[in-house]
Structures are given as C-alpha cells and as structure tokens.
Amino acid sequence: MKQGSILERLAVLADAAKYDASCASSGTAKRNSKDTGGKGIGSTEGMGICHAYAPDGRCISLLKILLTNHCIFDCHYCINRASSNVARARFTPQEVVDLTLSFYRRNYIEGLFLSSGIVKSSNHTMEQLVEVARILREEHDFRGYIHLKTIPDADAELVHQAGLYADRVSINVELPTDAGLARLAPDKNTGRIEAAMAEVKDDIAQSRDETKRFRNAPRFAPAGQSTQMIVGADAASDADIVGKASRLYDGFRLRRVYYSAFSPIPDASAVLPLKRPPLMREHRLYQSDWLMRFYDYSAAEVMQATGDDGMLPLDIDPKLAWALKFRERFPVDVNRAGREAMLRIPGLGVRAVDQIIAARRQRTLRLEDVGKLTVSIAKVRPFIVALDWRPTALTDRADLKSLLAPKQEQLELFAA
C-alpha cells in the first residue's frame, strides 16, 4: 500500500468516507472546555460548518474520514472491497489525532467521525479506532464530538472501550434482508451484527442506570447508537426496509436508522444492479421513518401506504398515500379530535398539531386559524372539519391524488 503525503491520503480517505450517511450528532451531551476552567480542548457546543446537526438545530462540523480504505472483506457493493481497483491509503492513530486537533484549531471542525476498512483483523482495526479516541480524550482532553464506527466481529471489550470514549457508536446492518446480506456481503453475518448491537444497547442502559446513582460514573455512548442500510442494491422492497427499521428501533433502541441509496461503483460485480435507485426513494424512506418515530405510526401502517409491489409511491409522501387509502378515517374535526387522529392529517406536522390542541382550549378554530399553522392549507382542506369548513365530497373525489400531488416543474440551472 503506497503511502503519500498527509494531504494525499486525506483526499483518498475523506472521499472513501462519503458513502457513510450516519454521521449526525443529535443526542450528545453538552460538553465544553470552559467547564474545567479552560483546561482541555474542544466543545460539542457552538456553530459549525458541516452537515451534522444537534437536537436544537445547531450545525456541528465533523472531520469525516476512514482510518484506512484497505479491507480484507469483499462486499460486492463496497468501493473499498478487497477486489476493488482503487487507490489505497492509511493513517496511523496519531496522524488522525493530529489532523483532528489541527482542523479544530483552525475552526474547521468541532468533532470527528471515524470509520475504517478491516485491515489485518477486526480486533486489530478496532484497537486502532479506540486508540484514536483514547489519545484525543486522555492525552489532549478533547471535549468535541466523537462518533466511532464499530466492527461487529471485534471483541466486546474493545467495543465497550469505544463507547466510553465516543459520544456515539454505530454498527451498520448494511442490507435489509438476511438473503441480501448473504449474497452481497458473504463475510458478514446478521446474527453477529445484531448480537453486537444488543451488547451496545445493554452497555448504554447500564451506563444510564449507573449515572443516576453515581455522579462520576463513566458515560457510555451518551448519544446512543445508530445504523445504516443500503437501499436498492438487492431486491428488498420498501415494506421490507420499513419492517427491518422498525425491528431495529424496537429491539436495540437505536437513535437513528440511516438509508443510503446504492450508487454504482467502478468494476462492479455482475450481481449488482446497473442503475442506482431514484434518490426520491431514499427520501420517501426517511419520511416513513419520521412517521414511525414522531407521528406514532406503526410499521404496519406505513407498509399500508405501499403499493402491491411493496414500494412507497414516489410522487406523493407516505402520509398522504396512507390517507388516500383510508379515506374513511377523514375528515377529522380539528376542534374535537384526539392528537393521534390529527397526526394523520396530511399537511399537519407535530408542532402544528400541538399548537392546534393548545389554541382550541381558548376558542373554536376556523379554517383560517389552521392555515396559519401549515405551509399548504390546500393539502389539509380535504381532510379536516373546522368551524366554518366542511370538505363535503372533496375527500372522496376520484382525482384527489392528482389535485394534491406536487406539481412537476423544470428548474433552470442558472436561474437568478
């Protein structure tokens, strides 16, 4: 493996890390070097310049790289697989530490997202990842955000050490179905992946219990764990993916499941599709994930929004698709209905529903009042009843979908 300059290797390993979507920093504890009288370096607070976001909407910049893109595994869908003809590079743990601190001091970043290909063995690679976090935390008192990608086959004690240094740990399930994983990633095993996720879940639960009883108990992955699934590399339907995500949330108390649309790679295996799935499919899966996490939809309800082929429609969002299938549930009286029923009204978000419930305690709401709380009252009108509004036959119109579907328009590349 040819070793170039730091910048040359950074170009290779930063580019190789772009395929991992699970780098959000929501849920981490607030931690600042000012808390210790100015000792240490870094912070999880303040404004950043990248694309990871805290729960309150702050942007937190992350240095997102691989320790190495060399890998002994040969997953068909991975650009860094053993048989892939790509430029290879590798950092030492100390070099990653130096880069992180150097970028932080220049105000480029506020944290680190570190993953890696598997080099030598799972345990050896995991030791290297943990060493990066250890040096940052113990030798430099780094208080910024750290997200480590852990390796399912690594020893449980190594993964535990990772969680003691990192704000978040994540283990990728890779593909939605066992059959897809066996076909496209024969070196990986669903049972081992989920066993590792279960151990992390137990460590997080134990840590939270200990911190309630002992003030100085060490925290384990305070921002929880997440995972990622590749969409469109195998024959899994959206219903399969939604069902898998629901089981992961319920079984392992994940903070997030990320969806990454498969992207064709150079010298691809013949078992992979020739074209990437529509990016809108990835977007619809994120919307369905949102429905389960914040709108109290069950996985079965989201699956009801799919077609006969198990796929979510691309022209309308899953919430509208569900409402059009179950028109007998509408219209909903915004002055009387419960919160669960109102969360199913297309066009109303969680905040709008809560504001409606608060406002109707003071007065009976009109259509105009609801319109002030939503971006598009046209989308809401067919599904609600207000003091001065009833949709009459509008809810049952055969062409309702075409009336509510977003209009297709050609955008101008150089429009002012």
TrEMBL record:
Gene Ontology molecular function terms on file: catalytic activity; iron-sulfur cluster binding; metal ion binding
Gene3D superfamilies xrefs: Aldolase class I
InterPro entries, alphabetized: Aldolase_TIM, DNA_rSAM_put, Elp3/MiaA/NifB-like_rSAM, Endo/Exo/Phosphatase_dom_1, rSAM, rSAM_sf, RuvA_2-like
Domain of life, per lineage: Bacteria
Name of the protein in question: Biotin synthase
Domain Elp3/MiaA/NifB-like radical SAM core, residue spans: 61-288
Entry keywords, A to Z: Iron, Iron-sulfur, Metal-binding, S-adenosyl-L-methionine
Database matches in CDD domains: Radical_SAM (cd01335)
Key word Nucleotide-binding present: no
Cofactor: [4Fe-4S] cluster
